[in-house]
Design goal:
Blueprint (H helix, E strand, L loop, with lengths): L1 H11 L1 H14 L3 H12 L9 H14 L5 H11 L3 H10 L5 H17 L16 H17 L2 H8 L11 H14 L6 H12 L6 H6 L7 H17 L7 H19 L7 H12 L6 H16 L5 H14 L2
Helix pairs in contact: 1-2, 2-3, 3-4, 3-5, 4-5, 4-6, 5-7, 6-7, 6-8, 7-9, 8-9, 8-10, 11-13, 13-15, 14-15, 15-16, 15-17, 16-17
Amino acid sequence: PAHRLMAALGVAAPRPLAVALSTELEKCSDLLSEAFVLQSLLDLPAEQVQDFDMLIRRAVSYVGRDTEEGRNSRAIGARLVRLGDKALHALCDGFAEAHAGAQKYFLILFDDIYRANPSVAAEANTERKGLAPELLERAAEVVLHAIETASKGVRMAAMESRFVCDVEIAEDTRRRLAGAVVDSVADFIFRSEIEKIETTIARLGLPAVEPLLERLSPERGKEERVRAVRLLGDWALNVKAPRGQIARLQQTVNEVLRRLQGLALEQEFPDRGELLCALGKLVSSPAASKDADEVITRTLLDAARSSAAPLIPRALEGLCYVASSR
């Protein structure tokens, strides 16, 4: 009822209500009252509030201080999502000061704001204004810092971020993100969680390749090498050429194919079945060369006809990817 009353007053007399609520906000001595006043102010048109940017910062501060992490924080968070870039900027500013539980919610809000306000590049053919690349870059740096330095719970939440795959984020940042996520994926226990994180890595685009190739070297652990092979295959299924960079994508795909073909000659590679499947995924990419297509297809057919029972189903899986691309 109180929120409905504020909404009605906001329609009838928005400016006087904004002044009264702003005065009341300075007097709030408990979180419950502060949450009510913040929600009421955030529901008003921005031009009616004297310092709307300050209000956004106060709302972010509230979410960062609320240890109950209950309905009020979520209600304020939902209102912040509607505010787009200004809210994202304030969330980046307030991230370090928030407690761990609030930081995880901040990371969820990063993705929610991104989904509600796609980047400028994603919205290039529409009249809708999206998030600026420099703001996405800053948010991505916050996520990267969290993965590298935060507690395990916050690191896990940061690795689930989806907006970091946006092509407007600098390639160096996405490359560092891919490396940090690969190094920390062992924090996850359940297979479903690991698969979700691996999908994020695969969607980071061309910058994800370098850190994955580094993890193919023999001095790396067996599990790490197999994961890198699997991720390179998934990367080939998800990657899209940045505008004007088709030749670069072709070169990268063929370089990855050469590396994996070299591994296929290693009898000691920990999981040859995973390697065969990844080869099929890579050669199914439109960027793969025709020569590689012929060689990989022959390799997969030989494995499928072999007597090595564990390899046969993975070779057939790789052949399915090859066939689906023709």
